[in-house]
Specification:
Shape: globular
Number of helices: 1
Number of strands: 9
Structural class: mainly beta
Order of helices and strands: HEEEEEEEEE
Radius of gyration: 18 Å
Number of domains: 1
CATH class: Mainly Beta
Length: 143
Amino acid sequence: MRNSTKIATIGVLAAALMLPAANAVAGTSYAGFSTTLPALQQGVLAANQIKSNAAAAGDIRSISVGSDYNLNARQCRLDRAAGPGSTPAQVTCGTERFNLGDGASATLPSGSHVAAGNRAYLQLHNSTWAVVRVSASGSWRSN
């Protein structure tokens, strides 16, 4: 392998190792989210944080939802696949908060059993009969 190829490979690996650290946000701080929700109540993992306290509920606030639509939100954990031939990643979520519209705030119970130090995810989706994609933004924290 040529020296230029080795240097480029090392640079890419170093950048990849730093990327997850740059995205990690302490769960006690609010972080913004902005996403487009799929139609027909399909969920999307809109944001993630490192959970600080496993028993603490999270919060979502200052929501802005497109048009006159509402969204549903919950805090989840993502169990990744173990290896070849295993079941794909599975999402386990806490209690869902329904019909959150513009300016709404809500607590997100920690029923998803995200352990402290692990990544918690914010799952959002449209109301049941929304047949269009809807934009949503706001802030949240996992605690």
